[in-house]
Structures are given as structure tokens and as C-alpha cells.
């Protein structure tokens, strides 16, 4: 048996001296480098606070940043879950101190099939504990770069129109303080009162970018303003014209003809998943931004979780196959967020139908990606 006998193992050919690629060209390497420039000041402050409020750990514990009672981010499985373990702002009068306010709208009497989205905000908050404040690809740490709070929920009641008034008042309050509202629904009927609360604080027009499998623009459903109707009523608001409404991902067997007629009459811009597939996400984003921003002062982002293929988001009221892949929708929303938005809603998470919290997790992810992208492009932050 000779020295070069490889005993049947196929060895790889020798690696050449010259690398075949430039390591520094990789996004993965650049993103790691960006992390070095991030502050840790608020993290350090949080540790100090945890130790003060939660007591220093038992003597046997070597890591002295750990407290006795869990306070702040760690461990991820512990604690009272606000969104991303943000401070709960009980006094809504102080919301102007923050760049962003998360608010839940536990409302589902606008549903026309499965109910349960009233538990959406709680589910999204709970699973958001899986996330830290740092995003590797973007090189953003929200804790360090954005002042955020969780306002808790709007007090919705068993009446659609009165709840709409509550929701509009809540969103408008946050907007009026110069803080960006991020709304966790709730069924999609809330799109109208949320938009109304935004629009009354904007001098000029508001464009709408709407990701959905459903067109949601008929006047009424079951004789009420249900979750199939928000954009009919929103685009009746004088400074939210239908020509600035872009609806992306629409299609399949759940789009009522009544809504299609209105979309056609009002001239909204509708893109199906076929459009998305043939044009590509970058082009779709470019077109959506062009339409939504035309003559507008700002843009509202409405993310219906059911715009994603239902294989990824079982926890929703009207699941539908054939929608976006999660990373397509995240990329699209990132490209929208890059140009800045006034507010965002994530709707239709129904946790009773969810599996392993994947639907709620994607809702949380969308919010975080949008906010981090806005920070990265300098569209928000600094309070
Ligand atoms: Mn939908």
C-alpha cells in the first residue's frame, strides 16, 4: 500500500493560492464589519437598570450582567411581552417622546369567515420575544438607534363604527405628536379608520401601498363595512385619492367581483402575483413607489399577512395559496420603507389557526424589517 493510496476516499483537489472571489465583496462580510460601528450605550444602560430593578444575581452566577428577576430582553422565554420587550407606555400623553409607537387593535368583528384576529396583537407581541433589536444584514440595532414604545391596545368594542372612531382617534393622537404609529391588527377593516387617523394629520395627499391576496375595496359586505371594504372608504377621504392606491399580490379565488368593479372604476393600480413574478420585486417596488408617491406627501403601508402563500401563514382568516414568498414580501416592504412611510399596519393574524407561531412571527418580522430599513436610510430616528 503506497503513500498516495487514499483508501477509497475522494480527496478534494488542492486549494489554489489565489482565492477565486473577493471575500470583502460578500454582503455577509460587509454586514459583520458594519456591526463594529454600532453603539452599545442603551444596551449597557439597560443592564444597569436590570440590575438595579431586578437585583444582582445569586453569588454562584459568574456573568454579573444577569439579574435575579428577569428585566429587559433576556432570557427570551421570560418576561411580560410587549412588542420586542419595549417599554410599555401607560401614559399615552407622553407618546411624543418616541420615534415609533406600537399599538394593538384587537378587533375582528369585520371578519367574514374565521374570526380570531382580536388575538393578533397578543400573538405578535408574544412571539416577537424571539427577536433581538439587532439586524445582521442591515447592520442596525433598533435599541441603540430608535426610540420605541408599546402603547398597548385600543379599546375596541362590539360595534364596528364606534370601534372605527376609537381607532381613528388613537392613530390620530399618535400622528399628531410626530410619532410613527405601527398598528398590529386586527382584521383588515381597520385599514379605513387607521388611514383616516393618518390622513387628518397630513397636509397633502397620502398614498397607500397595500399587500394582499384580496382587493378589499367594495363598498359593503353583509351590509356593513367589513374587512373586504377598507379601501373603498379610505379612498373617499379627500386627501387619500384612489389614484395613489397600489394593490400588490391580488389574485386567486377569493377576490369578490364587487371589489374588482370598484378598483376598475376608481383607477387603483393592481398588480397580481403574476405581475410580481414577471416584473421582479425591484421593478414592482419602483412602480408602486411611483404611483403611491405621485403628488403625495407621504405613504401608508398596509400589510395583510394573507398576501403570503398560506403554506407559510396558516394563522389567518382567509388563507389562500399562491401568494408572496415571505422573503419577496419582506424585500418589497423594505424597498417601500427605504423611501419613508407615515405609518404601517399588519393585519389578519388569527393565532387560533396558527402553527408554531409562524404567522405571528412573520408579522413581527415585517414590522422590524420596515423600521430597521427606515433607520438605515435615515427616514426615522433621532428622538
Ligand atoms: Mn386579505
Shape: globular
Largest sheet: 8 strands, parallel
Per the CATH scheme, the topology name of the largest domain is Arginase, Chain A
- The first-to-last residue Cα distance is 74 Å
Q: Report mean pLDDT, rounded to a whole number.
A: 96
Q: Output the CATH homologous superfamily of the largest domain.
A: Ureohydrolase domain
Ligand names? manganese (II) ion
Range of strand content: 5-15%
Number of helices: 12
Number of domains: 2
- In the predicted model, the low-confidence regions spanning at least 5 consecutive residues are none
The helicity comes to 25-40%
What is the gyration radius calculated from CA atoms?
Answer: 23 Å
**Number of E-state strands:** 10
Please tell me the CATH architecture of the largest domain by its name: 3-Layer(aba) Sandwich
What this model shows, in words?
By secondary structure, the chain is an alpha/beta fold. It folds into two domains: 13-77, no CATH class; 83-376, Ureohydrolase domain (Arginase, Chain A, 3-Layer(aba) Sandwich), CATH 3.40.800. The chain contains twelve helices and ten strands. It has helices at residues 27-35, 41-54, 120-128, 142-145, 160-176, 191-199, 230-234, 257-266, 273-279, 281-293, 326-337, 358-376, and strands spanning 100-105, 134-135, 140-141, 148-153, 180-185, 205-211, 245-250, 269-272, 296-304, 343-347. The longest helix is centred in the last third of the chain and has 19 residues, at 358-376. The radius of gyration is 23 Å and the shape is globular. The mean pLDDT is 96. Bound molecules: manganese (II) ion. Manganese (II) ion binds at residues 188, 212-214, 304, 306, 318, 348.
Amino acid at each position: 500500500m503506497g503513500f498516495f493510496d487514499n483508501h477509497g476516499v475522494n480527496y478534494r483537489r488542492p486549494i489554489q493560492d489565489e482565492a477565486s472571489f473577493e471575500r470583502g465583496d460578500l454582503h455577509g462580510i460587509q454586514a459583520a464589519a458594519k456591526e463594529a460601528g454600532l453603539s452599545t450605550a442603551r444596551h449597557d444602560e439597560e443592564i444597569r437598570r436590570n440590575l438595579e430593578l431586578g437585583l444582582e444575581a445569586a453569588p454562584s452566577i459568574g456573568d454579573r450582567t444577569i439579574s435575579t428577576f428577569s428585566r429587559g430582553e433576556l432570557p427570551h422565554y421570560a418576561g411580560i411581552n410587549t412588542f420586542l420587550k419595549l417599554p410599555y407606555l401607560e401614559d399615552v400623553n407622553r407618546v411624543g417622546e418616541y420615534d415609533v409607537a406600537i399599538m394593538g387593535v384587537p378587533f375582528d368583528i369585520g371578519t367574514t369567515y374565521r374570526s380570531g384576529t382580536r388575538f393578533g396583537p397578543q400573538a405578535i407581541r408574544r412571539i416577537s420575544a424571539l427577536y433581538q433589536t439587532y439586524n445582521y444584514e442591515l447592520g442596525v440595532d433598533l435599541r441603540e438607534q430608535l426610540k420605541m414604545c408599546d402603547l398597548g391596545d385600543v379599546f375596541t368594542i362590539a360595534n364596528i363604527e364606534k370601534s372605527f372612531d376609537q381607532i381613528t382617534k388613537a392613530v390620530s393622537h399618535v400622528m399628531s405628536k410626530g410619532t410613527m404609529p405601527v398598528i398590529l391588527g386586527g382584521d383588515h377593516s381597520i385599514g379605513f379608520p387607521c388611514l383616516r387617523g393618518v390622513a387628518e394629520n397630513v397636509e397633502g395627499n397620502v398614498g397607500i401601498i397595500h399587500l394582499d391576496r384580496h382587493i378589499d375595496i367594495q363598498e359593503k359586505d353583509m351590509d356593513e363595512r367589513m374587512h373586504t371594504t377598507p379601501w373603498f372608504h379610505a379612498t373617499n377621504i379627500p386627501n387619500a385619492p384612489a389614484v395613489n392606491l397600489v394593490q400588490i399580490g391580488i389574485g386567486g379565488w377569493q377576490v369578490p367581483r364587487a371589489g374588482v368593479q370598484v378598483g376598475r372604476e376608481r383607477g387603483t393600480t393592481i398588480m397580481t402575483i403574476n405581475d410580481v413574478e414577471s416584473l421582479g420585486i425591484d421593478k414592482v417596488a419602483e412602480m408602486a413607489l411611483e404611483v403611491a408617491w405621485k403628488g403625495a406627501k407621504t405613504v401608508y403601508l398596509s400589510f395583510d399577512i394573507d398576501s403570503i402563500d398560506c403554506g407559510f401563514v396558516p394563522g389567518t382568516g382567509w388563507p389562500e395559496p399562491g401568494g408572496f414568498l415571505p422573503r419577496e414580501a419582506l424585500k418589497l416592504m423594505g424597498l417601500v420603507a427605504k423611501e419613508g412611510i407615515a405609518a404601517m399596519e399588519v393585519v389578519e393574524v388569527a393565532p387560533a389557526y396558527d402553527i408554531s407561531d409562524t404567522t405571528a412571527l412573520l408579522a413581527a418580522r415585517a414590522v422590524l424589517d420596515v423600521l430597521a430599513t427606515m433607520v438605515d436610510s435615515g427616514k426615522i430616528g433621532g428622538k
